[in-house]
Structure formats: structure tokens, C-alpha cells
Amino acid sequence: MKILYISTQRGWHGGEEQLRLLAEGVRQAGHSCRLVVRRGGQFAQRMQAAGHDVVELPGTLRGPLALWRLRRELRSYRPDIAHANDPHSVTAIRWASWEIPNLGHVASRRVLFPMRYPRKYLAWCDRVVCVSHAIAEVCRQHGLPEDMLRVVHSGIEPARCAVGDAARGRASLGLGADTPLVLSVAQLAEYKGHRYLIAALPAVLERYPNMVLAFAGDGQLHQELVAMADDLGVANSVRFLGYRNDIPDLIRACDVFALVSPAEGLGTSVLDAMFAEKPVIGANAGGIPEMLASQPDEPDVGWLVPPCDSDALAAALIEALGSEEMRLRYGVAGRHRAERGFTAHDMVQGMLDVYAELSP
Questions:
Q1: How much is the mean pLDDT over the chain?
Q2: Which terminal Cβ of the chain has fewer Cβ within 10 Å, N or C?
Q3: CB-CB contact of 250 with 266 (8 Å)
Q4: Rounded to two decimals, what is the model's pTM?
Q5: How far apart are the C-alpha atoms of 350 and 360, rounded to whole Å?
Q6: Annotation: CATH topology of 166-339
Q7: Could you tell me if residue 278 is left (phi over 0), alpha (psi between -120 and 50 degrees) or otherwise beta?
Q8: What is the pLDDT of residues 308-319, one digit of tens each?
Q9: Candidates 3.40.50.720, 3.20.20.150, 3.40.50.2000, 1.10.10.10; correct CATH number of 2-155+343-358?
Q10: What residues does each domain of the chain span?
């Protein structure tokens, strides 16, 4: 098969990492792929450096010139599948592929938010691939039919965190081996729920006064969260690390990993922690339970707390930090769970199965 991927993103977040893994897996499986991306962005640069076939277009990929060039790529490359990796890409490919025959149209849906324009998916897409069952349910609520929807969980490379070094991670934060460390990896956005972790800290620090909460990620809420930590008197216990290239080291260094977003599509940083055998505290919302919820005949793999509930979160943190045996048990069980259905290989194979439904 020949697949053309379209991404309008300039930066590098979870969706771009998933597209990197997908493109690499598709090539390794013997198929051809080309990526059409925004000119000059981090995503374009990194994919070019990795040796991918990348076409850069100007602006947001929705202007007349970009759409004309995208249509030219479709006619010259003649893909079997055009895959939009984000909502804006859906709009771009819809117009650029007008009346081009024998082309399957696929769109990824990664966010749990209500759909602003479900009609464009109904009008353009043959398949909408959701990264969790929770997202698929949102799509159903907005009128997308069952036969259009497929669920393919995001996946990661199991070896990604194997290269992490706990001592190096702690040294980068200036922490000794005996300092309890709770880590959250997520952009500083409202829907990620950082404020609930900060609000839980006063109760946790009463039991573990030397505990450190570290946030890896950047975003527009940075100053607001810093002010909140200061107002609560916990600023000395919170580290805002910004964008980091040493996430494997930080995950290996932590005692507990937390992602408490009340509106999370899935959250691949949780999978990083699970593969690293780190215990996870997650919000019982969105796609997070699909990774952490108890399963029949399987041990628990982490703590699920009600969303937006700092008291319950504080209780879970206190329990987790107080039991090394429980942390170890949940860590091992989490790795086993992640190995069964949340690898990059699983994700790539799931996507190839979707493409095969549409390819002649």
C-alpha cells in the first residue's frame, strides 16, 4: 500500500510521536508512505532527520497555495490511503482530494473534547480511528455511525524507557535516592489536571514533608500553576521542569507516576511509566481506565481516583508512597498489562488492518 499522511502541527506532542511510530512501522512492514507537513516546524525537521519522505507546505496547510500543492502531491504520489493525523488535516485533505478516485480517507481522533464539526468527518471520512473507546463514544454521541469508527489504542516502543537511568534522572533534579518523587509528564494545559495534584500536596506533605512533585512539560498554564503552588505554601516541593529530552531518566527516577487529567483521550505517558514498571495514579476518566482499570483474573496495575478530587488523590499518593511492596507489585503488573495491547507494534498492525479495509 501507499499511504499519504497529513499533519498540520508544528510542534511535537503525543500525536506527532504516534505518527512517527506509525510511519516507521508502515515502512518496516514493506509499505510506502509520504508525510505532508507544515514548513519549518519541529515535526518536519525531526521526520526529515529520521530519513522519512517529507513534503513541506506553507502556512497551516489550509490556504489556497498549500491546498493546490497538496492536491498535486495526491495526483503525483497516487496513494491508496490519505490519513489525516489531526482535525485541521481533515479539512485540508477534504478539499485537496475532491473528485480524486480510488482514495481511502482515514482520520485519527485523539482528543476527548466534544466534536466541533462532526459533519466534516461524516462528509469526508471512510474511517475515523479513535485511540480509545472513550473517544469512540464521544464520536457516537455526535452522530458518527458505528461502521465508520475503529478503535486502535496508541502504543509505544517498550524499549523507550529501558534506556533510562534513575541515578541520572535524580541527579538532574538535585535529589538524593531517599527523596520521594512523584512525576507527571504532560503539557501544562487545563484539561491535564495539574491543579488537582498541587491541591493534594498539603495533605501529602504532612506525611512526607520531603516529597517532591515534578511536572515535565510546557504550556500556557505555567505561571498560573506556579502562583497556585505559592499560594498553597507548597512551592518548595514543586518542580516545573519545562520540555525535557530526558523523560526516560525522569520516569526511572520517580517513585510514583501520576496523570490525573479529567479529559484524557488515552495518555501515552502512562504507558511509558507502565513499561518502566512504575506504579501509576490516574484519574478514572476518559481513556485512562482502559490502561489501568482492574481486569478479570488479573492483578490491579495502579490507582484510579475520581476526576477533580484532590482529597482522593492525596489519599492515593499517601498510600502509594507508604508501601514499597505495593509500588513494586503494581509496577510489574502494569508492565505485563502494557505488553498485551499497548505496544507500537500493536498500534501499527491495528492501523494496517484499517487501511486494508479500504485498499483495493
A1: 94
A2: C
A3: no
A4: 0.91
A5: 18
A6: Rossmann fold (3.40.50)
A7: beta
A8: 999 999 999 999
A9: 3.40.50.2000
A10: 2-155+343-358, 166-339
